[in-house]
Amino acid sequence: MDPLSGLGVASNILAVIDFGWTLLTEARSIHKSSSGLSGEAEFVDHLVRDVAILDAKLPSLVDVSGELQRLLGESKKITDLLQKALEALKARDNRSKWNSVLSALKQSWGRDEVKDLTGRLSSLQVQVTGHIQRATHHEVTRGMTRISQAIAQIESTNARLEIKRRDDLRKLQENLIRAIEESKTSGRDIETKVNNLPDETKRSKKGKERTQEEIQRENQEFEVKRNRITTKLASFRELEVATRAISESVEAARADQLILDRLRFDNIQARHRKIEKAHAKTFQWVFEEQTRGPRLREWLETRNDVFWVYGKPGSGKSTFMKFLCGSRDTSSCLRRWAGEKLLVVAKFFFWNAGTTLQKSQEGLLRSLLFEILRQCPELMPAVKSAISEIPDWTGPDAFRYAPNLLLLYQTIATQDIPIKFCFFIDGLDEYEEERRGHSDLIKVLRQLDSSPDIKLCVSSRPWTVFADEFGSNADWTIKLEDLTRDDIQRYVSDKFNEHPQFQTLTQMNSEYSQVVDAVVNRAQGVFLWVYLVVRTLLEGLTYHDSVSTLYQRLHEFPPDLELFFQHLIDSISPIYRKMMARYFRIATIADIPMSAIMYSFLDDIDDNSDFALSLEQSELDPAKIRLRKDQLRRRLDARSRGLLELVQDRTDRGTDDKTVHFFGYRVDFLHRTVRDFLHQSADVSSSLQDRLGSENIPLTACHAILSALKTAPLYDRSHPRHYLFLIEDLFFFAAAALAERPDSNKTLEPVLDAAESSYRLNADCLGADSKPFLFIGLAAQIDYSAYVHKMLRASPNMLQESQNNNKVAPVRPAIDFALQSARYTRPISTRSVTYLLEAGADPNMFIDGGTVWTGFLDSLYGNWTAGKYGFSNDDEMFDKDRACELIRLLLLHGADTDAEIQLSYRSERSKLSVNAKELIGEIFTPDVASELYQGIHSRSDQMTGVRLTSKDEQKPRKKWYKLFSRRIHK
């Protein structure tokens, strides 16, 4: 059991002990009750309820350490004993009076039983205190206890997530250690003092009437001894309070971390980090008085409107937004706006060359919620309450839908606490979702800007949709290229003056300094153009170009970026143009920047097409990894003229030099405008394809990834997920290869076979035993049904062998891969699903809190609801025909129509739990669902499965299904 969770159990045991001591020593005088019961009866009634509550708080003995199991068992026996004793007192003759619970218990039990109880309480107290001490104190052999290690892990996670927590866990731990020391001996002392309290019951039985003086003396003696017990109990109660405090604080910290981990996603800050910092003193005009900059400053200090930053491609909008986010002047202005209220600043940078989450509503909302809750844990209780309204929020899809995330955001926005929010959202034009446009994004932004305590600063290209929404008030807009002339002047001048030859040349000819002004005059506010031009002019300074030659270099660069990119491509040496085309083609096919090590193997494959297949499984030597990285940097420069560059993935550094150089670098475009140019220019695309001839570039990429898999350094088990990312990339390009050329099936198979063999060889390092169906599952996801069929023929029982008697999947089943779409492909393959079902895949296999079948229906319902309520879904379009066919297949193979589904997406439905049959009827119609079931039942006695041909998959032939399909869209 987790040691910190064990403290929570121990604190409950301490509460039982404290209740027992208090019961025996502090409940002395009984008074009449206003409720009509005697004071004694009502008092005992309260005690009975209190001990019942304590007993209920004691956890079951499941998942508890052996020592705690024993202590819990003794604690429960004591609560049972106290309950029986108090029930006996409650039922006694009310005419009988007693001056303390202790004396009453002695009358009811006898002196020996009370003494036995005090002994048990004392022993339990000593043992549980010892347990806490052993768990908490430093040990000579370990250096750090498990408690300290657990706290360090929580603090490490807090640091990774940058959570600003109020509680100091280390201080709480120190308080606990101090309380242990003060209470270690209290148990035996309290036992002795309780057993030596005046025995009023025994004296009354002697038949001798006590004088008033004797009674007063006995009372004084009792009070003195009781006060000594109370003093001892105070230190014991400090232990209970300290134990409970650290347990509750840790529980809260872990709950917060779980929510933040669910909101956070890989590369959440990748785009922001990729943007270079603004050049020294650039953009300072924002906070000066003599330009339009003060309007932005006024907005920062006083307004809650939306401020719009717009400009040409390459004008530096993202750099400007990054500058604003990180500027101390911005923080000072915003603090003046916030006044005495807490200020929370969050940012999100859309990136259409990144992952789905980096360019979607879901990514925007998750990122903002993560930043808000990271900075302001005070909002967590309200968010947890709202999350409880989302069924199965720990499931994989709970935070997948924009409405769920907006529910959490609206909960935060409507809290009556003194907080102001400012959000910086860059690159609205880079937003990209299936079936959704920028007008849908604007609707979400307006929902974000829903309070006078919230304001947004957004940036985009000057597209009409944004101008109509944000451009009506010129005071709260900035056209960036109109304001950056001085910044460009400073940048060019600084770069020239940093060059060691510039001063030498200007001393020879002062006209060199005039080149700076010429660059500024031609720039038209486009920073990217300036950056690229200055790069080649500095090259000219190195070679001591004459002034006229520098001007010639300058004028050869077209002022238009697209012409400029074309110019750079045309300037690449003919000998490199085939490899240039290969690099550009891979970079434009990929949905995210690909691994640099993969690119480094492209030349090996060009020299030998079987290189990857014949390569031995062996980790690359660190020196060879560095050599490959250096070679690739040089080749990118020669073959792309800087349009592609080697960048370090700063979001996840390796733990050693080898893993950093192998996994830690990617190849990315110099700027998103380069990617746009290559995508949108038909002439360039045609030219690149001509240079590649008949080569299947995605297949070439698969070979390169296989080479990387075979040579990956995994000796320290430090980065298995990077290896798994390579496998995902492999299947991404495999899908692209099949789409580009369906006849590539036979040439692709050996690559995947070799990749799986590599995966198996690295099983120990990767924990591959927990992912035995990764390859067949991913093959099913990309609709590579021939490969799925081949694997099942080779191992016919592979699916059944994974299923135990309880039908609980020990690993993720292949059928679950097949039914959940991913980045590789949008339509789910009915053919691959059929193969898996016929091979024994069970749709009712339990996984992730439900079954494969209920998870599929939940996802299907989410896709349908997303379209119904106007929100995009980034996995797959809702195709009713295909959905019906998949449901039919699953039902034919035993899917449970009575299975209960906890819906991840919450709509206006009052019912959050629904059975499968009802949900199918809601997604389609009850009549259509009824026809579907009738068709299934009429065939269930004649067949156990359905094998579809490719033609069958496109258009089912059965008469019942044709009738069924006609009614789907009614």
Which properties best describe this structure?
3-stranded antiparallel sheet, repeat, 5 domains, NACHT domain-containing protein, NPHP3-like_N, mainly alpha, 5-stranded parallel sheet, Rossmann fold, globular, 970 residues, disordered C terminus
Integer-rounded radius of gyration: 36 Å
Euclidean distance between termini CA atoms:
55 Å
Number of domains: 5
User: Class by helix and strand content?
Assistant: mainly alpha
| Strand composition percent | 5-15%
Shape label? globular
Count of distinct strands: 12
Give the low-pLDDT segments.
28-34, 138-143, 867-877, 941-970
Helix content: 55-70%
Average predicted confidence as pLDDT? 79
Read across the widest sheet, the strand sequence of neighbours is 2-3-4-1-5
**Could you give a short account of the major beta sheet?**
5 strands, parallel
Number of helices: 47
